[in-house]
Design a protein that fits this description.
The protein is of the alpha/beta class. Helix content is about 45%, strand content about 15%. The longest helix is centred in the first third of the chain and has 13 residues. The chain is globular.
């Protein structure tokens, strides 16, 4: 477990409900402090921009937190989450991509595509996202400051 991560906020729309509940179970078993922001029922339709807003609101006062956001494609929630200046979200399909996006771009939100990813691979992506450091060299910090 990465001690620098204060909380993991996790949210998803109806298409992401099953994957989200699985990840919550796995993260809790790994000792992480997980906050479920909903939706838990695949039959309760919700708009992905609203899911992203809920996640962004939860993270705004907790800079050491990380977020996981899920919809069917992963693209909708990623686009919606990146509207918020304190969020740097990336849709990742592999653990290597999650590791690299943390290392190079200091992502603080992992977007997942529930329709396109195996649940075990999704958990490996989450682990890489949570355990990978940011390479805080001057050029990377400068680039992030330009978008934050």
């Amino acid at each position: 477990m990465n001690e620098t991560v204060s909380k993991i906020y996790i949210a998803g729309d109806h298409r992401g409900a099953g994957l989200k509940l699985y990840l919550i179970e796995m993260l809790a078993a790994s000792g992480y402090n997980v906050v479920n922001l909903g939706v838990d029922d695949p039959n309760t339709s919700v708009d992905y921009p609203d899911v992203a807003a809920t996640l962004a609101d939860a993270m705004i006062d907790d800079p050491k937190s990380r977020g996981i956001i899920i919809c069917g494609t992963g693209a909708g929630v990623m686009i919606a989450a990146n509207r918020y200046r304190h969020i740097r979200a990336s849709r990742c399909n592999t653990p290597t991509q999650a590791r690299d996006d943390r290392f190079h771009d200091d992502i603080n939100v992992l977007a997942l595509a529930a329709d396109d990813i195996d649940i075990e691979v999704a958990f490996l992506c989450v682990q890489a996202f949570l355990e990978s450091p940011f390479d805080a060299i001057e050029r990377r910090i400068r680039r992030i400051e330009k978008i934050s």
